[in-house]
Write a structure and sequence with these properties.
α3 runs antiparallel to α4. The protein is an alpha+beta fold and 195 residues long. A six-stranded antiparallel sheet has the order 2-3-1-4-5-6. It has one domain. β4 and β5 form a beta hairpin. The N and C termini lie far apart (38 Å).
């Protein structure tokens, strides 16, 4: 990083470290003990919508790879598009299969990266729910930052989030995951599949 970068406030981009996703199962144990949130078995990878034959081939390969998993229960991996124009590759597992869900998310990210679609990758998330309070929570991995952050939409509220819960989760998981320090990067993922 040069003097001009420092003066202009530019920072060196962090290289994505997809292996950080493998910290989610141990973080889930901490999260459940401290807050009552348990995995839902749902997860998704978000990316800027890509068109073309190469992407379609990559999507088919990823889907075939994940759908061939003999342990998979539930619907196959599916591709959806949200109201904001982003694409999501969604994986559904049983709630006790968080390690397998993490493998799915890692495989999707890795396949897209290897096939040249790394710049389109935005984030991955794993869904959690507190059954006693009927509350949803996502642990979101920012691909380009290599960090996680919690996202907690308020139930029944139109696009409002529970900032106090998000900060409590951050304090709880500080030793388990590399959390995003810059709160302005805790982007809302309204209506994300898997949440």
């Amino acid at each position: 990083m040069g003097l001009l970068d420092i003066l202009l406030g530019r920072t060196k981009p962090v290289a994505p470290d997809l292996d950080r996703l493998f910290g989610l199962p141990s973080a889930a144990i901490t999260l459940e003990a401290a807050t009552g949130f348990v995995p839902t078995g749902s997860g998704a990878v978000c990316f800027a919508t890509v068109e073309g034959a190469v992407f379609e081939q990559t999507h088919r390969e990823v889907q075939a790879l994940l759908d061939a998993d003999a342990e998979r229960d539930g619907p196959p991996v599916r591709l959806t598009r949200d109201d904001y124009g982003y694409s999501w590759l969604v994986s559904e597992r049983t709630p006790d299969q968080l390690p397998q869900l993490v493998n799915d998310l890692h495989a999707v990210n890795s396949s897209m990266e290897v096939n040249g679609f790394g710049p389109q990758l935005l984030c991955s998330l794993a869904g959690f729910r507190n059954p006693a309070e009927d509350r949803a929570l996502a642990l979101v991995y920012l691909y380009k930052r290599g960090t996680f952050y919690p996202f907690a939409p308020l139930p029944g509220e139109a696009q409002r989030r529970d900032n106090a819960l998000e900060l409590r989760v951050r304090a709880t998981l500080g030793n388990d995951l590399r959390l995003e320090e810059d709160l302005t990067r805790w982007f809302p993922v309204w209506g994300a599949p898997g949440l």
